Sequence to fold (645 residues):
Amino acid sequence: MKTHNQFNGGENGSYVNEGLDTSTLDVRIPNDGEPHGGLKGSNEFILTDGKEQNCRLEDVKMWCRRRATSALSKKVLYKRLPILNWLPKYTSSDALGDIVAGITVGLTVIPQALAYAGIAGLPAAYGLYGSFLGCFIYIFLGSCKDVPMGPSAISSLLTFQAAGGVWQKAVLLTFLTGIIELLMGIFGLGFLVDFVSGPVSSGFTSAVALIIATSQVKDILGINAQGSTFIAVWKSIFSEVQNTRPWDTVLGITCIAVLLIMKIMATIKIGPAEDELKSSKHKFINKTLWLVGTARNAILVVICGAIGYSFQASIVPFRLIGNVPEGLPSIQVPPFSIPGNETLNIPEESFVDMVSGMGSGLIVVPLIALMETIAICKAFANGKPVDATQELIAIGVGNIANSFVQGFPGTGSLSRSAVFNASGVRTPMANIYTSLLVIFALQFFTPYFYFIPKASLAAIIIAAVIFMVEVKVVKPMWRTKKSDLIPGLGTFIACLALPLEMGILLGVGLNMVFILYHAARPKMTVETLLSPGGTQYLMITPDRCLIFPSVDYVRNLVTKHSRKKNLPIVIDCSHVYGADYTAAMVISLLTEDFAKRKQPLFFYNLKPSVCSVFEGLSPVDFIVYYREEKIDDLMRDYKLKSIEP
Fold:
């Protein structure tokens, strides 16, 4: 083996990299009688020669003490309790903005919570149970002012698919989801959301929107339909369509139209375009239109509830949501088993049975909750970094708390966050006013919820989720990179045809296939160059790391071009930042092939860390250099060596 200008015996046997003249790297080689002299590890561990076992234990104890001290430092405390950052600077203007935003969102949360409980297959009260305590927890642990924690359309649908409409399973799912999210936050696993690409996320969200809208068609038509997938639900709807209730259909379609019109009202602006030129009358009208449009769900529920109440003395032509238990839920431990009931034909289920029935929902629900929350934080962060770890801790603790008041899994909601932002929210304190409004509704208004028609709640959901279908991303994807449409479209179709967790896993799998394909097929630049001395040689430049999927491809290309032109070959390794054992083995075979053909092969600008990997197998004639002018000397030395007997 020969390595040119790689290791020079400098003073004290130090390592010298000629290509990095400004490097301060100095890894001293141990002298005889001085084991590991000067060889230092990281700032967390010190490598010793292992003379005594108790020395190692002391090192571990010291490391644990340092970690514990850093974990309890003021900096970490302020990071993990974000309220400490903004509460000392809280002003009266902040309080006013938070009160307006909190009450406005509260008027949105109440009808949405009632509707989302229907998506989850649970009684309406469970939507409200999951809408107040998590908001309160988020005030202390949340890092984004625009996140109102509570049920969302996607989390409700995932809850239905995992719990099957059984409230005990839904509450246990909330507890386990919170535990998983909290552990993910503690161990810094927020990066997992990075494995779900934009196209996969868009395909998943669009499919979920169609599934949710489809699940509400039955309430618009006033029929009973079942099914856990998009296709299954539509089959059930077509089989029951002859039982359609006309008044429910008329009310549902009318409500959808009214909601869409009121949504447009919120965007209407009267008067001059510049705010400075608008009169107080124009500002009042604009604010009224915005408030009516923003509170459209609450207004619709009140009006439809009044219509339902007016029929209490006669036959009600609509299907109503029915009785909602009055008052706040009791605080109790989540159910870890389901007692059997022979009368209602309910089998007994243990904790293991309940968890096994949830399947992959235990992983998908926390992951999607994180995706939703991070998407909201990024949308309203104005370029500031988002702490995914802290958000996991916040929604994790929030879900654990919700499970003790019989709530189902919650997360941030993009629609409510948009209302928060448009209402001028200042801090997470706005969540307390949303929580108080939900508590007030549970305490005093639940008897009146009985008369709300199911068709009106279905209309609220359909009018909201139709805008979640991300058709607008197709055109930019087509213009930028057409291949991104494949995982996006694949995820969309898979989520419609299969259970959601399988659909998104298939989408992530498709994405990984594309990533692995690109890793296995690096782009290779091939140039015929002249050295300063006038010698012609072939420069081959791979554009990425050499790891096991790509090394055979690189070897075949190098061999093909070397045989075709029969020139000295230089592999430019400037972009090769990593390698593995398979790459080292292939490089060893490649140098051996070139040595047999007596064709020069050189490696230019190879990183020391990669060089050490390749040298682990002692390849033949492995020559590395770092200065372009050295190429003539290397080729001359190689020729002299080849003619030696």
User: Anything to note?
Assistant: Residues 92-119 form the longest helix (28 residues).
